[in-house]
């Protein structure tokens, strides 16, 4: 009787109630366990190597490069002359030199003309604003020194523009407007244009045999510039006379100067000058203060002094020779028009 009332002790596992299958069939979980154990012995394990796991995780933890919401540009857009062909050859250098001399005289005390020997086309926004890409380029020994030089030139151009003077760049390596599109300089691109290939060929021949040997290179460069979209240039100088080309360029730069120097700023500068004069008169009785004497000397220099600007006749004589060189390059086109 006790054996009937007491629970039966058995070493075997008790039965488990069947589990309903989604398909409507009842199955025993013990069968699943036995089947999974059999599968583990028969089927190979789908093991994932640690490197594969890292590759799978990388897209989820990849750092997204942030794009700056604004772009830093110089306080004054630098002026860059391009054409009619390649820099370093006499025809292009001669025509651009004539324009540089005119701008120095026209915008005296308001302009800075500087030469740039570094290849500033390497100063792309995507490189300079991204520390990772910049570090990658600087690792290569061939370009590390050039990138340092380019960065210093860009900083120098920004510094020249801080005083709100016109900045004109005489670039040795810039021969196409596309070289400056991806930089942060936002330049004023001026195209010195010779539309007729025959005129350019004749000009190159007149410069001697050494220039004639590079005829094909200069002609190809000039043709590429002629094929550019006009929207790539801010100013196109296609006049036949230097005086007309200079007037065209000066009108554009004068308008840009007034746009960047509003009347309020000009009035503040004039009030500052009047204040300096008033202080100078107030100290005449006791002797002028050294700082006032320096300011009065600077005022005299800015206005050319009582005798006007120095070496005026020498400058006009030099500009006359430049005009004759420029005009001779365009007068040839009259026979071809």
Describe this structure in words.
The chain is α/β, with parallel strands linked by helices. Helix content is 53%, strand content 8%. The protein contains 14 helices and 7 strands. The chain has helices at residues 2-5, 29-42, 50-61, 90-106, 125-128, 131-139, 141-160, 197-206, 209-212, 215-226, 242-260, 263-282, 290-302, 312-331, and strands spanning 19-20, 26-27, 79-82, 111-116, 166-171, 188-192, 235-237. The chain has a 5-stranded parallel beta sheet, sandwiched between helices. Strands 1-2 form a two-stranded antiparallel ribbon. Helix 4 packs across helix 14. The longest helix is centred in the middle third of the chain and has 20 residues, at 141-160. It is globular. Residues 1-6, 8-12 and 288-313 have low confidence and may be disordered.
How far apart are the first and last residues' alpha carbons, in Å?
133 Å
Total number of helical segments? 14
Largest sheet: 5 strands, parallel
Q: Strand-and-helix sequence, N→C?
A: HEEHHEHEHHHEEHHHEHHHH
Shape: globular
What percent strand? Answer: 5-15%
Give the helix level as a range of percent. 40-55%
Number of strands: 7
Which stretches are low in confidence, meaning pLDDT under 50 for 5 or more residues running? 1-6, 8-12, 288-313
Q: Write down the oligomeric state.
A: single chain
- Counting helices, strands and paired strands, the structural category is alpha/beta
Gyration radius, rounded:
38 Å
The overall pLDDT, averaged over residues, is 75
Q: Output the strand order for the largest sheet.
A: 4-5-3-6-7
């Amino acid at each position: 009787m006790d054996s009937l009332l007491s629970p039966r002790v058995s070493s075997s596992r008790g039965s488990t109630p069947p589990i309903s299958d989604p398909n409507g069939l009842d199955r025993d979980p013990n069968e699943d366990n036995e089947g999974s154990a059999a599968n583990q012995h028969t089927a190979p394990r789908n093991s994932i190597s640690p490197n594969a796991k890292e590759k799978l995780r990388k897209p989820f933890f990849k750092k997204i490069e942030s794009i700056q919401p604004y772009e830093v540009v110089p306080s004054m857009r630098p002026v860059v002359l391009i054409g009619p062909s390649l820099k370093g050859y006499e025809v292009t250098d001669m025509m651009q030199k004539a324009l540089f001399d005119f701008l120095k005289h026209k915008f005296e005390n308001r302009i800075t003309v500087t030469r740039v020997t570094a290849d500033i086309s390497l100063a792309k926004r995507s490189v300079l604003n991204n520390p990772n890409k910049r570090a990658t380029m600087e690792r290569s020994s061939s370009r590390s020194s050039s990138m340092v030089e380019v960065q210093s030139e860009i900083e120098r151009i920004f510094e020249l523009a801080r005083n709100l003077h016109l900045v004109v760049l005489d670039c040795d390596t810039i021969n196409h407007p596309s070289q400056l599109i991806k930089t942060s300089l936002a330049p004023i691109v001026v195209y010195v244009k010779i539309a007729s290939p025959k005129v350019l060929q004749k000009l190159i021949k007149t410069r001697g045999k050494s220039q004639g040997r590079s005829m094909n290179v200069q002609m190809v460069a000039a043709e590429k510039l002629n094929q550019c979209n006009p929207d790539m240039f801010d100013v196109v100088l296609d006049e036949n006379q230097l005086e007309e080309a200079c007037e065209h360029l000066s009108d554009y730069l004068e308008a840009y100067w007034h746009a960047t120097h509003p009347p309020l700023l000009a009035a503040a500068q004039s009030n500052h000058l009047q204040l300096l004069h008033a202080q100078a008169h107030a100290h005449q009785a006791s002797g002028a203060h050294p700082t006032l004497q320096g300011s009065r000397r600077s005022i005299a220099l800015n206005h050319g002094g009582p005798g006007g600007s120095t070496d005026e006749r020498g400058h006009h004589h030099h500009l006359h020779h430049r005009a004759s060189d420029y005009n001779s390059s365009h007068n040839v086109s009259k026979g071809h028009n």
